[in-house]
Structure formats: structure tokens, C-alpha cells
Amino acid sequence: MPELRTVTTHCPYCALQCGTQLTRERRGVSVRPTDFPVNRGGLCQKGWTAPSLLEVDDRIRRPLVRRDGALQPASWDTALEVIADGIRRVRGAHGPDAVGVFGGGGLTNEKAYLLGKFARLALGTSRIDYNGRFCMSSAAGAGIAAFGLDRGLPFPVTDLAGADVVLLAGANPAETMPPLMQHLRAPDLVVIDPRRTATAEQAALHLQPQPGTDLALVLGLLHIAVVDGWTDADYVRERTTGREQAWQRAMTWWPERVERVTGVPVTAQRRAVRMLAEAERCYVLTGRGAEQHAKGVDTVSGFINLALALGLPGREGSGYGCLTGQGNGQGGREHGQKADQLPGYRAITDQAAREHVAAVWGVRPELLPGPGLSAYELLDSLGTEDGPRALLVFGSNPVVSAPNAGHVTERLRSLELLVVADFVPSETAELADVVLPVTQWAEEEGTMTNLEGRVLRRRRLQVPPEHARSDLEVVHGIATRLGEPGHRYPTRPREVFEELRRASAGGRADYSGISYDRLDAGEALHWPCPDAEHPGTPRLFLDGFAHPDGRARFVAVDHRDAADATGPAFPLTATTGRVLAQYQSGAQTRRVAELAEAAPGGFVEVHPDTADRNGLAEGALAKITSPRGSAVAEVRLVPTMRTDTVFLPFHFAGESRANLLTGDALDPSSRMPEFKVSAVRIEPHREV
Ligand code: SF4
């Protein structure tokens, strides 16, 4: 493919997928925002500096194979042979589930699709999952239970601008996706967040609960809505089922009890409900703050119950949605790189789905393995009797991003074969036996699906470095060395997408009517889009929900404590999150000079009184310890923090890793880890 001077594409980072135009200038690549609806000429600092990713100093430029304890340059043939040999050896000794695959929510739709097919056919393993499990799985589970379908936002982002009130529960878009804020200027914001974030600063009302108590809070809001007569009786009767049990649970959460548990005053609870209920047009949105809990699904169900009681979902100008985080957080969960799913967002246990996908793949359905292990369980099992002895990692950096990171690092070290495909030497790549240099973003073609279910074209501006290959070529190379027919693993993105269309046909996320030609012609296509004439579906549920009876479900939920209890040894709660200038594990953004300057390292936000009590000063180093381990971070005194809570961003490596503190408690259904609540103590750090 020839190099182009300019292309219209999208930012490489978050789920907003801001529209950009890239131009090759004499001094490198320049970027400018386009008028794409989600960003309308805006970009955040990450988007403006994205071209620097194409020039990072330590780009991986050759395959690397570990010899005599060190990673050393090797040819692609040698690297792929080492991988194939390792897989054959491990599989021969321990069976197909001894090989695992760990994918990523930043991979294109084509890569996510081919990875799932590769794992199940070429490797024959059930052990595939991806880092999106850590991101959106609780909202996905709750959305499917309530509506029969999960699409982050079942309406376009631009609809938010027409709202009177928007409730943001555990979301901080002013830092995580700033261009979204232009759609939130007109509505009054009600923000639920234990921190006074940049978003909370702009809110008409900020509720600041203790971390881990969002579910108690939203049960209390539902209680007030019901008791004070704010519910939409006609909507509830005509469009929902399951009200009785769900409302009954909320009846025990009277406002004073909620204040005792959450710390949110009764007056603020009442004001929040009044604002939401009196609004003509109103949205309830959740983010990771509400979702990353061992009760994440129930917490999101609590917010959906409130939205249903107020008559919001499936009504024009109102609704419920989840602000997905990763670049392809939406598409990444639809095409089969998840342990329990096949393409088309179908359950892997569904016999009809297995038959459909097996027919597209040209194999018998019984050849497809069953459900595997969720992301944390997969990582936790590495190197154990029943766990994988070999792991292939694509587009992920679990050494930094996984919970209980010290333990996960040890499990990765215990593998007989660790393969990492990446374009930068991430902390996980540093542990690998084989590192494969892959193409990135502006060097490849493909599609992404943004947080509103709109399928977008990622376009190639320039040729990749000499020895870099796309993840699709990597999959093809390993599969063929394992004896698979090459045509089963196409390397051209357009060809993979054509197959993905057929595999998704009739599924929840039906892409069968979407094509590169339609996208390149400028059509705005949101799935489901079941045929080539279909205009796509920007707004879901207006005529009914996706359950067979067309009604949404209230789900009866109740509050329970977080897995970690504070006490004398660990008197504080640590919560984690993101900052404006960094993205996810930071493997990419920590290498961009402007971003590294803006957010150079780990820090811990502490209330001044808490700092006083613990002998901490602004700018000094603190040691934060949980039952899992310790992290070291620079103290920032923040008077708006709760005195019982500290906050750490999770983008940083080494001893600043916030995930050295987080635990392995998982949501019973989504298997989401409890990133947002860890019991800790904090003290001055003393060098030893
Ligand atoms: Fe990129 Fe997200 Fe920033 Fe937009 S908001 S420029 S997609 S990181």
C-alpha cells in the first residue's frame, strides 16, 4: 500500500474515538481534529500528541527472543518457530488448555475477531480473555439483564447536549475524555464520586460517597423516588417487569440509613432525586467508579433500576448508558476474544450460536471449546497444575493494569512460554520469552467501534518500520506453523471484516450490513445493521427492549460491603483512577514527552488532616500498604478528599503501581475485580 500525505482517521486512545486528520509533513506527522460529531473540532492533550507515538525512541524494531536470560534480536522465522515449538511442547504435555491468549480492548475489530478464532481453532483452547474484562464487564452484564442487549451508549453522544440533567456515576470525563464535556455544557450535572474531580467541579450537585457504597446510595435514591412519588407509573407499567422485588429491596434503604453508610447527607439525596425526576430530558450514565467492584453488576443494576423507575431508558432525549473506556472497548467485547463469547456478541454456550459460527469457520461445532476463564482467573491460574503454561499477549500490559499486580507478575514469571506482541517494550514485554514488533494505529487499516456503537474506519497514513508486522500477520504466522490452513487466518483487514460480518449475522451485535465501502462513503453506521440497505441503529430501545416481550427488567439488588474491610491495620480506603495526560497502563503515553512532563509519575491524593495524622507532607514520598503489598507515591494534599480515602492513578510502573494494592475479589457474574476499594494504611516512605 502506498504512503498517503493525509488521512482521515481517529485517535488511537479512548472510546470516544475523536475524529482526526493526520498529515505527513517534512518534520513528521501533524494532527488536527475533524468535525466528527463526538469531538466537533476538539481533542484532548493525548489526542494532540498522538503523532509522537509514531516516533517513540524505544520502539520495538525487531523480533526478540530470550537467550541466556536476555532478549536478543532474531528473525521473524526464528521467533515464530520458537513460539510454535513452545506451543507444541506445552500442548503435547498438558493439553490444549495449557496455552492461553490475553487480548485487549484497544485491538481493532478485525484483530479481536481473528484472535478469538485463532484461540479456538488453531490452539483449540478455551483459555482466552482480555483486558476489557477489567473495564466494561459489569455494565455489560447489567445492561444485558435489564435490556436484553448491551451497547455502551444506546444513543449518540450528541443527544446528551439536549438533556436538562445528566447523572454521572463514577465517571470523570473532564479528565478521561474531555471533548465529551462540550455535550454536557447545557445540562445540569449530578456527579457521584468519592473525589471532587474536575467533572465534579462543574456539577450542579456533587454527591461524595465513601468508596464501595454507590449501591447503597442508589438504593436510597430509588427509595426516595418511590416513597415521594417521583416515579413514572405509566412507563413502569407498560415498559418494564420485575418492579415489586426491586422496589421492595430499596424500601430498607431509607435516607438516614443511606447517610450513615455512604456519608451523603439526606438533603443532597433528596435534591438529586428531585433534579432527575423534574427534568424533562434526563440521562443516567455510569463509569468505572460504579462498575469496578465485586458487586459491580448489582451496582449498575441499581442505577438502571433508578433510570427505569423514572421512565428514562428507550425514551427519546433520555436514557441510561455506560461510558466505555478503552479505544475499542465496545467492539472488543463483541467479536469473540472474551472467554464466554463468540462473534456477534453471542454466548459460547448457545448451541445455535456455535453452529452458526462453526459454519462460517468451516468446522464442526463440537470442535469449538466451551467457556474459558475470566481475565483475572486466567492470569491467576498461569503456571499452575490446571492453568496455561504458555500465554500469548496482544495489546495488553497486565503487569501494570491487572489487580493484585505483584501476584500476577509472579504468575507471568512462572510460565514456560510468554509471548508479547506490542510496539513498545511494556513492563509485560520485559518478562517475555518472545517479543514481536507489531504495527500501530496510523500504520494499519481496520475498524473500531466507539462508545455509541458506531463503527469507524482506522486508516493507514504511513508504512510501518521495516520489521513490524500487523497482529493479523502474527496470528497467521503462528497458526500456519501449527499446521492450520493459511486461508483460515486472512491478513488483509478488509477480508477479515467481511468474514466478521458473516459471523456476526443474526447476533446481538449484527455487523452484517456494514462494509468498508459504506464506511468509506461516509455513512454513520451504528450496529445493529443487519443488511446492506439498513441505515444502522443510532438509538436503541425506542420501540421496545431486546427481551422477547419488549419490556425492560428491574433486577432486585441489595448493598453488601466491599471485600476489603478497613480496621486498625488498614484504616483507610484506597481508590484508583485515571488522569488527563495518561492512558490505561501508560505503556504508550508514558513515552510521549509532553504527556510524561504533564503527568510524570505516581502520586497519592490525601486530605491534609489525614496527612497530618500519618506524618505526611506535600511532595514527600508515602508508602501505601494493603493486604496484598505496598506502593510508593508522591503525596499530594487535596482538601476536597474524604478524610477516610486516598486516591492513586493506575498508569504508572514499578513501585508506583497502584495495582500492587488492589485485590482479587471478583464480581460473581461479570468477574470484574474490585479495583475501586482496597483497605490500606499510609506512612512516610523511608529508603532502605
Ligand atoms: Fe483521544 Fe479520547 Fe482524548 Fe478524544 S478524548 S482525543 S479519543 S484520548
CATH classification, class level of the domain at 64-134 and 328-438 and 470-508? Alpha Beta
Kindly report the oligomeric state of this protein. single chain
Bound molecules: iron/sulfur cluster
- Euclidean distance between termini CA atoms: 55 Å
Kindly state the mean pLDDT as a whole number? Answer: 97
CATH architecture of the domain at 64-134 and 328-438 and 470-508: 3-Layer(aba) Sandwich
Unreliable parts: none
Strand content: 15-25%
Binned, the helix content reads 25-40%
The number of helices is 22
Q: Spatial order of the strands in the main sheet?
A: 5-4-18-17-16-6-7
| Major pleated sheet | 7 strands, mixed
Outline, from the CA principal axes?
globular
Class from secondary-structure proportions:
alpha/beta
Please outline the helices and strands.
Elements: E1 6-10, E2 19-25, E3 28-33, H1 45-48, E4 64-67, E5 70-73, H2 76-94, E6 99-103, H3 109-122, E7 128-130, H4 137-147, E8 165-169, H5 173-176, E9 188-192, H6 198-201, E10 205-207, H7 214-227, H8 233-239, E11 240-241, H9 243-251, H10 255-262, H11 266-278, E12 282-286, H12 288-291, H13 296-309, E13 319-322, E14 341-342, E15 346-347, H14 351-361, H15 375-381, E16 390-394, H16 398-401, H17 405-413, E17 417-422, E18 434-437, E19 446-449, E20 455-458, H18 471-481, H19 493-504, H20 516-520, E21 552-553, E22 572-577, H21 593-598, E23 603-606, H22 608-613, E24 621-625, E25 630-637, E26 645-649, E27 678-684
The structure holds iron/sulfur cluster.
The site of iron/sulfur cluster has 14 residues, from helix 1.
